[in-house]
Design brief:
Elements lengths: L7 H21 L5 H20 L7 H26 L2 H8 L2 H13 L5 H20 L8 H24 L5 H24 L7 H29 L1 H7 L2 H13 L6 H18 L24
């Protein structure tokens, strides 16, 4: 089978950029508008990618886009926004790092992809590293239960969404797939934001720059890299690369937010990096199921 380790650096782009959003959200964006925060993050990114893709969904992709958009964008962004405001950036990002294990289980249940032994061991070690970093809690702040619950819910929903996207993505290119999810997720979230939070928040220059970064860089660029790598590496390997998310969150919290890096967090980072290296070793491309494989240049069902 074809060696696809060259896709590992591309997969790493997404969790590194996502890890940076905890700091940006906590320090530049309005704290009381999580729903609008999700809309303003997803919609500009989706529109930009939609213009570049120049393709609208057809047939079953209308409801699939709504499902994927809700799981990976709409509800996910709102929950992450809540977590980022309620928790230190290091804690919020480490809770999300349990995602690789959830992705492996979801891929096993939904796709019948039994995880490799290396991936299982790497996932278990990743959870250990996450626990060590979580217990480290370098700034000594009390953990807000709402933030923990929001992080866990976001992690579970996004894991299922990514596995479903992996199951369906053989029918469409990465760019439109990503654009449809972002736009659909934002549109699902928009009426809820209006009803719950009213008018969109007033944004100063700092907030505008913050939203520009989290939308165009940490969402548009990151999501395209993530789904491209997911197509070549599969959920288990890409999920383990996602462990770079908490490492980025911890290091940025230390460097930029003056959060104290404890010895436990140092050990946790080492364990997480070791888990990622172990689980991602000898990554191979999984062949697409025959029912989902499309001929070169042709989308299943004739939709372009």
């Amino acid at each position: 089978m074809e060696d696809n380790r060259r896709w590992l650096p591309i997969a790493a782009i997404a969790p590194v950029l996502w890890g940076s959003t905890y700091y940006v959200t906590r320090h530049t964006l309005p704290a009381d508008s999580p729903l609008w925060g999700g809309v303003l993050r997803a919609l500009p990114a989706g529109i930009v990618l939609l213009v570049l893709a120049r393709r609208l969904p057809r047939g079953s992709w209308w409801w699939r886009s709504a499902v994927l958009g809700t799981l990976t964008v709409g509800a996910f962004f709102a929950l992450v926004y809540v977590a980022a405001q309620a928790l230190p950036s290091s804690i919020a990002s480490t809770v999300m790092a349990v995602g690789p294990v959830a992705m492996m289980l979801a891929a096993w249940v939904l796709l019948g992809q039994r995880p490799r032994l290396r991936a299982v061991v790497g996932g278990v070690l990743g959870v250990v590293g996450v626990a060590v970093m979580l217990l480290g809690g370098g700034d000594g702040a009390a953990l807000d239960p709402r933030g923990i619950l929001a992080s866990v819910a976001a992690m579970l929903m996004s894991s299922v969404g990514y596995v479903l996207a992996n199951r369906w993505q053989g029918e469409v290119e990465v760019l439109p797939l990503t654009a449809w999810q972002l736009v659909a997720g934002a549109l699902v979230l928009l009426p809820v934001a209006v009803v719950v939070e009213g008018a969109p928040p007033a944004l100063d220059g700092t907030a505008l720059l913050g939203f520009a970064y989290v939308s165009l860089v940490a969402t548009a660029v990151a999501n395209v890299a993530w789904f491209a790598a997911l197509r070549h590496l599969g959920p288990s390997t890409v999920g383990l690369v996602g462990l770079l998310n908490p490492v980025t969150g911890v290091l940025l919290g230390t460097v930029l937010a003056a959060e104290v890096l404890s010895w436990r967090q140092v050990v946790g980072i080492a364990v997480v990096l070791g888990a990622m290296a172990l689980g991602a070793t000898r990554a191979r491309r999984r062949a697409a199921p025959p029912a989902l494989a499309a001929a070169p240049g042709e989308a299943v069902g004739g939709h372009r």
